[in-house]
Queue: 3 jobs
Job 1
Amino acid sequence: MHRLLLVDDDPINLAVLEEIFSETDTLCCVQSGEEALQQASEFKPDLILLDIMMPHMDGFETCRRLKANPETTEIPVLFLTASTELKNKLTGFACGGSDYITKPFEAEEVIARTRTHLHLRDARELIRRHNHELEALLEERTRDLIQSERHAAFSLLMQGIIHNLKGPLTAVTGLSDFITSLIESKNEELSTGPAHIPASEPIAFLTKIAGSSQLISGAGEELKTMIDSMMTKSKSDKQQSLCETDLNTLIKQELTFLEGDMRFKHAINKTVQIAEKPLPICVVPSEISQIVSNLIRNAMDATYTEKHPKMLIASGKKGKNAWLSVEDDGPGIPPEIRDRIFDPFFTTKPRADKAADKEPSGTGLGLYTVAAIVNTYGGRIDVGDSSLGGTRMTISIPLIKKT
Ligand SMILES: Nc1ncnc2c1ncn2[C@@H]1O[C@H](COP(=O)(O)OP(=O)(O)O)[C@@H](O)[C@H]1O
Ligand SMILES: [Mg+2]
């Protein structure tokens, strides 16, 4: 059962229409354009049958107003007209009418035309609802993707860092063993050896121990720094709500964390040009870390075959935005793929399970995620050429307005 709004200033015409539809549909009958406008909002019909010749506000004007109102613009309007003149029909369509029925009308024709337009309306409504659901689904999927990309990137970094913890840990245990065996052999020597020990020996012995202790302490410091940066990172990653923060601080924090990667720490010649003044932005901090780490990881991937890779990481303020750029001296991005690098799953790298040892692998979700995050903040991401010879990726995010 549909809802029909019947509009005619002539009560007899109105009664005829009512007779035609009363058994099949829910009706609302009015006799003027003004009432029609009001009922279109209140009764919320699925379709309107509208007489053209009416005093005060005629059908054309009523239709124009219905179409101008977002609340009623989607309701199909069928004109009832005594005129068969082409000009009038065209005016009807120009006002946004869907069809016209000439008076005097046959009940069958009125029913057929009305049903056709109700079907069209139902189909449109269905498509609109589906679209809406698809959009919601897409949004949800995007959020999931961003989340899983974050987990993947994080676990990759953690793997690297945990791997790097092994170096100093081996130093600590190895050197402790060395000291123990040194003391043991000395003890043995003392209990079985000749009674006379040259005066220089205890000093040499203690020097060896002191040297090893120093190495142990250095390794311990290194471990502590790594663990501290992991703690800071995991604390800031837990913060899932918007907060006012300084872009520079987030960049520095991420850089410290990335130092856990030995190639990033030692092999890459980095120049960091962070703005002197704070860059206050309102963001979820972990999302910005994700952006920084994605851009840097791409730059590292792009330069992985190079002997002396270079990278420039900079930030600053431009107009009402804070910006961050990551540049590398890699091969750059060929113009023919520049449009596609932000597409989900677009990658020129092999999958992790197909990549050769140390060869960078990709999911194609990095830049998609970066762009999605930046968009939610009303910011943007730009690809350009770096003066270093490779790519320059720049993101900008609106600064917090000073009140
Ligand atoms: N700094 C860069 N230099 C060269 N190519 C890049 C750079 N950053 C991104 N790209 C290109 O964009 C593609 C998509 O990047 P991204 O979305 O991060 O996915 P992934 O790194 O998993 O491949 C990469 O596969 C690469 O071809
Ligand atoms: Mg990437």
Note: The longest strand covers residues 310-318.
Job 2
Amino acid sequence: MHEMSLAEGILRQVEATARREAARRVTRVILEIGALASVEIEALRFCFDAAARDTLAATAQLEIRVLPGRGWCMLCAQSTPLAALAAPCPRCGSFQVQPVSGMEMRIKEIEIE
Ligand SMILES: [Zn+2]
């Protein structure tokens, strides 16, 4: 499952940061995930909780902010909101839309104590 390796990757970064700061535990992790990143949010939450069990982030609250997707419609020659990677342009219905943002996933903030 692709969400499990994502969760493990996130936890590795979170733990590395927490250790560098000599934290006792991680209280909150805030992630930003683009709407076009092909990440199942609920699956990621589940995997994060499972993978965090024996880490400094075992009791951390996971907050996920979904960033909207945007694309560039070739026909309208305009930027447009994009709900999914294969979605048509909401203005003209064309599928010639290049995704320009919303594919990213990053750790926005980590709270430790
Ligand atoms: Zn269009």
Note: The pocket of zinc ion is lined by residues 73, 75-76, 89, 91-92, 94 (CB under 6 Å).
Job 3
Amino acid sequence: MELIEIKTGGVFVIDMMYTGTENMMKTDVYTRVGLGNHCFIHPEMYAKLQKLAPVLVERGLKLKICDAYRPPLAHKLMKKIIPMEGFFAAEPERSQHCHASAIDVTLIDAGTNRELEFPCRVDAYTPEYADQIAKGEWTAFKRHLKKAGYGWTAPQAEKAIANRDMLRRLMEEAGFVALEHEWWHYNLPDKEKYPLIDFAISPEGKFIFTPRA
Ligand SMILES: [Zn+2]
């Protein structure tokens, strides 16, 4: 099946966080499975992003995409590295990323090229928590992870919360569905209709996507 690749340009910045090691696993899983820094999405998601693009231009913003299609094999590796419940979905079948129907995003100020302030980074990542998780210490991270949800507030965080809520408005107006416990994650509606998609690389180095029956 055809997935569409979005590349950095215009209002989109592609920075797939599992390509390098700056993520909660400290491991370049996407590089290991051969996907690299490639952002593949379902055509229906592409259409919604095209609708969002002029709105971003008007507001002087760019959308940074940190995760999109995730090969099921990559998901299995990720779950093995971080088995913590409530972080990565238990099975690839339950992660919309493996169906090419989810993206993780944040906003960049197009003038300064800097990321706007949010309650936490995408995936609630910090190098310190990644180090703790690598040692099997999850208590502090679990507390920090509360900042990922829409229920989180704090007196000094008005700006971060306003940005989080603005992102949600923009994404919902473009037709995306928010996830209550992760401000950066957006699904396509009717998520049941998207099959799990397997990934392979042809001998010529071409990416091949096959829906699982
Ligand atoms: Zn996500």
Note: The helical segments are 29-32, 43-59, 72-81, 127-134, 139-144, 158-173.
